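Entry 12.
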Amino acid sequence: MTTLKKIGRLDRPDNNGSAQMFQNPILERISRTHISIPLILFFSISAVSLYYAITSTTISLGIGFLVLLAGVLVFTFVEYMMHRHFFHMEPDTPIKDKLQYAVHGVHHDYPKDKDRLAMPPFVSIAYALIFYGVFTLIMGDYALFFLPGFVMGYAAYLGVHYMVHAYQPPKNFLKVLWVNHAVHHYKDPDVAFGVSSPLWDFILGTMPKKEK
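Predicted 3D structure (tokens):
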């Protein structure tokens, strides 16, 4: 089980500030990004992929829409599994300890650092290319509909993650996303791994327990 100490120092008084991860100023700068950059990037990739899906394949729009929705659903599962098993890996070796801190532990130490609420653009582009290659190998032309759904799911995750850290919770059904993520950060990092949706936490038994 992951412990509070291993994931982030939750005894930090205010969790404000930002960590310096690289001595090299160039590496330090490119390790940060404004949230708008990956969002624009992902929506642009989605638009281009949908254009080619509609104009260069014989797949009907109805089937294509269902494939797109499947892409969104699959992303929510990948998001959950990555967060639970990769971002919160047990740091039982020096290499895994450094990797875990670099990809996620630093975020638990400084959750209000808005420049590190999304992966740098070059990492996002690499992810998109890898996803496209894998999806094409698995499903051929259907990947042109599946990729936009998956990538838009990723963009939704980034947007929700940014908002739950940057804004007060809304007074509607979306408040559960703020509450769950706050529990994950400040009370129990072994629950509430879904950021954009609580679906897989509910299915796989990692929903935060309601206090009596």
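Annotation: Confidence is low (pLDDT under 50) at residues 1-14. Residues 33-167 form one domain.
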